[in-house]
């Protein structure tokens, strides 16, 4: 097994498209070949070694590690398929785009389109577990097909738009129009009461009436990242006894579910 480490050489305003860096591509090359891989920087093909210091070492598991001020680096963990993709700091847009397996862990915040489809693809996250310790921008979980997206912080507008299946949990606040066009899947939010009960508003056309729901199955999940976000949603060490459940998006005949703690 191998650990590939990438440290950004210098911060700057350049737009770096790192979506071409895949585990299978790295595994087939030695260090010199990896350094010559092409990235697109401000629209110009550039050797990877000009942007990142690279280190390759043996490991007990397959790991790809990125470090540095990465907010201008986009497409990290695109099509990630197995092993761990670990990122220190904030990143740009399209984190874990079209990821199909393995684990993606981000210590900071991400831009827009987390886990969204890539190019002409119609599917977003399709099997991976993506954990974000900070916040995410617009369209997180867009067209998600399966897998899990965990966000400790906030999510901007249009969370889970056109979601097909999978699980999303957000421990902070959520922007406008979540679950727009959602077909199936599960969303767990720390606070969704106002957005699903707004009388006569747009939300009332998309969500069914809230009903009490006892989500005992959540206690059975054995995943440290999932557990951490659930505790943030609960606001303490214990999950809330009362949970509301709504179906969405009923404007498209969707059968997805949105779960959130009942107000005291």
UniProtKB/TrEMBL annotation:
This is Formylmethanofuran dehydrogenase subunit C. It comes from the Bacteria. InterPro entries: Glu_synth_asu_C_sf (IPR036485). PANTHER family: TUNGSTEN FORMYLMETHANOFURAN DEHYDROGENASE, SUBUNIT C (FWDC) (PTHR39673), TUNGSTEN-CONTAINING FORMYLMETHANOFURAN DEHYDROGENASE 2 SUBUNIT C (PTHR39673:SF5). It comes from Roseiconus nitratireducens. GO terms for molecular function: oxidoreductase activity.
